[in-house]
Amino acid sequence: MSQFTLRQLRYFCAIASTGSISAAAAREHVSRSAMAAALDELERILKSQLCTRHKSHGVVLTASGQYVFEQALSLLRSADNLEATAGARELAGPLAVGCYPSLAPTILPQLVKLFERLHPEVELSIHPTDQETLLQQLKAGDLELAIMYNMHLDRRVETAWLYDTAMHVILAAGHPLADCDVVRAKDLENEPLILLDAPPSADDILSYFTAQGLSPTIRHRTRHFELARSLVAQGLGYSLFIQRPRNPSSYEGLPVLARALDPQPHLERVSVVWPAGRTLSAKALRFIELAQQNVASYAPEALYPSPR
Fold first, then answer.
1. Start and end of every HTH lysR-type domain (predicted)?
2. What is the DSSP secondary-structure string of 137-206?
């Protein structure tokens, strides 16, 4: 019979997530000595060194520690789910959700409002960042879920489908191609491109041109979705986006026009993502359920109307 406790596992997961015994102690509101003692006792029970401790670099998990961390996360969430189901109690506690930056302003506000209205005891936190960082934070246990595009994902993650969309071109109202309902890729090759230089969007944009045997003329690069839209609205170039905000204007109030592309790009899937094989908490499962029921209605399907 195992002698470790759920508290010891929770403390160990806090150490693994923060990379520091002191930071873990602060997060769990216990003393550093109590946190260190829990780690020592867990290592004694499991008869395995779970991490190496460095004064200047904090804590680094061993291979055994990484395995125990993954299993402990699943066990703790299973215990939480059992308590919630058996006790029929309201969902409560922290839930960290990441999101790809360009998706966040469009779909998250309404979803967060709905989730918090239905489950006010859950401490929902939102963390927008690039896809590579999201995947790292999911693996580390800093995030339980993330919303992102299905680009370049592998079998190390599981996904729940939300909706499909496709890349389009955005133009200023006075752009020579603004009168076209559909813009040909070859007509964009020599036009200045405002590249949304955030992975995986940049790769997807450049791959689209490469597939047509074209090489775009990049004028500006930015990782910021709204800055790219504002540069386009000022007439400094065009950009290719996947996400379509409902607001057809830039921050300055200038019109931003969306047009379909020829050839038509492949569909991109927006999904909720989590590490493969990891047990999700009841809170996370409920978040996924509400996202699948509602998020598609938050994502505009029609192109922006022309101001003419």
1. 4-62
2. HHHHTS-SEEEEE-TT--TTEEEEEEEEEE-EEEEETT-TTTT-SEEEGGGTTTSEEEEE-STTHHHHHH
Query: Which residues lie below 8 Å from residue 225, measured CB to CB, with a gap of 6+?
Result: 101, 102, 105, 196, 241, 243
Structural domain total, the chain: 3
Model pTM score? 0.71
Residues 10 and 78 grouped into a single domain? yes
User: Tens digits of per-residue pLDDT, 198-245?
Assistant: 888 898 999 999 999 999 999 999 999 999 999 999 999 999 998 888
Q: Are residues 178 and 217 in the same domain?
A: yes
Quick check: is 115 in a domain? yes
Q: Give Dmax over CA atoms of the chain in angstroms.
A: 75
CB atoms under 10 Å from CB of 50, counted, come to 23
Residues 277 and 156 in one domain: yes
How many Å apart are CA 157 and CA 276, to the nearest integer?
4
Q: Is 180 in the same domain as 149?
A: no
- Domain enclosing residue 258, as ranges: 168-264
Q: How far apart are CA 298 and CA 112, in angstroms?
A: 12
| Whole-angstrom distance, CA of residue 308 vs CA of residue 179 | 9
Q: Is the pLDDT of residue 306 over 50?
A: no
DSSP 223-255: S-HHHHHHHHHTTS-BEEES---S--B-TTS-B
pLDDT in tens, 103-113: 898 889 999 99
CATH of residue 251:
3.40.190.10
